[in-house]
Design a protein that fits this description.
This protein is mainly alpha-helical. It has four helices and three strands, in the order αβαββαα. The structure holds zinc ion. Zinc ion (ZN) binds next to helix 3.
Length: about 150
Amino acid sequence: MSPGSSRPDGQTDLPDHMIGYWRDNNDPATANWPDPRSQVDATWDPKERKRVIRYLKSGAKYAGSFGYSRCRFKCGIPDWKMGKYDLTDGTFVWPEGYPHYLLVHHVKPPERFLHHVRQRLASRPVARVLRFISNLLRRPGKTARGS
Ligand SMILES: [Zn+2]
């Protein structure tokens, strides 16, 4: 990609690490943010979708709340179910209600985020094994009995 070319996931002035934040017609500051309708992809692999939803739900609470969010598709889900917090994995930040868009409205997150999640999930078992081994090595003489 040459410098200055637009990103494949659409141009927006939303910071790169923020996903699932949408344009609000009542708020001019969000005028260049994405519209969730432009990110619907019904052909997205349902298995990956499930994994990503689980990943999003496992995020840590990132920041306080600006009040409950509402579903932009106006599907009737109560606002309180959409949540009011921002979640993070240490790299990306998303609203608590983001998984709802994936689950119910087939919104597909930007490829840069999917790539990140795939890498994270792939490296997890390796990290677990390394932790196990380092714990074994650190255990102080558990096998030596007697005094
Ligand atoms: Zn909805």
